[in-house]
Amino acid sequence: MQKMQQAIDLVEGGCVFSDGCSDAVQAWDAAAAVMVGAREGTDGNNSASGSYGKSVYGLADKRCPQYGTCGPNGGIDKSKPATINSKILAYFAEGQQATYAGIVSQMKEAKRSVSEKSSVPFLQGTLRYAWKQSTANSGGDVSDKTVGEGAAFSVGVTAKLWACSTKGYNKAFRQMQVGGNFSGKRTIDFNAVKLAFECNYRCMGVTCAEVGDFIDGNPIDSPKVRTCNDDENGSSAGLARGCKRGTNKARRQVCRKFTGRPGIEGRDDFGYIADDASAPAPTDAPVAAPTPVAPLPTNDSD
């Protein structure tokens, strides 16, 4: 996020690639490099016996077989990148071209989309270890490892939940808090954690389909936990800003317990539109009139 913001600040200050200033593009590319990480390797080591990288990109690849979200169409083939990683890299590429051309509004939208979609592997990790600690998992696993993993993943995403709904955050945090009344002491309420996040997916900029069903070794058509339905949940891609209503009345009533009172004023009205083809095009002009945008040079050995 810092590197993308640095690129935005540079472009707003007049640093445009077509005028000979490459600093902004280099900052934007550095953001993508940090997300992927130095340990990813040439192919991510995503073979049947391979390991993964150590950064956010590697985490998404590690979770995708557990949620059926590998490859462009979903699935459990770990040799294919996580679906969300392909989306994130597409947003990085979109933002890179906007940086090249000096179109600040598109850079900001790409940055926002990367931030939102990067929360998916943390959501998957949080839900996985919340399930392990719940009664749904044959009485619950309250071992130090499971509690620690759940806490580690949850701190990667609960800040975004708090920004959207302090009510949802409090319900999830109460269950996952290390040293609290539940996590590590007795089984937790998995459904409360799941609903706290799902009911705020629209505000958080992710969809039920992106998170996927929790398979974790089960057949893909018989998961341990089904994800929500985006239409019923009100989190379908393409919803306009401020749209909060899903198609299922019962779902809307349930979600009232987990939505509202955003930690950042107005954040719950900042809806998910990143994939909305009908969204209005940016209206701001480039900082400096660029030459026609051409693909940037690449080095296949990098």
What characteristic shape results from the CA principal axes?
globular
Task: Please estimate the helix content.
Answer: 40-55%
Structural class: mainly alpha
As a percent range, the share of strand residues is: under 5%
Termini Cα gap: 22 Å
List its salient traits.
single chain, 302 residues, mainly alpha, disordered C terminus, globular
Can you offer a commentary on this structure?
The structure is a single chain. The chain is mainly alpha-helical. The chain has two domains: 118 residues, no CATH class; 167 residues, no CATH class. The radius of gyration is 20 Å and the shape is globular. It has 14 helices and no strands. The longest helix has 19 residues. The C terminus is likely disordered.
Short description:
This protein is mainly α and 302 residues long. Helices cover 46% and strands 0% of the residues.
Please specify the SSE layout and strand pairing.
Layout: H1 2-12, H2 23-36, H3 56-67, H4 83-101, H5 104-117, H6 120-132, H7 144-154, H8 158-164, H9 166-176, H10 190-198, H11 201-204, H12 208-211, H13 230-233, H14 249-255
Helix pairs in contact: 1-2, 1-5, 2-4, 3-6, 4-5, 6-7, 6-10, 8-9, 9-10
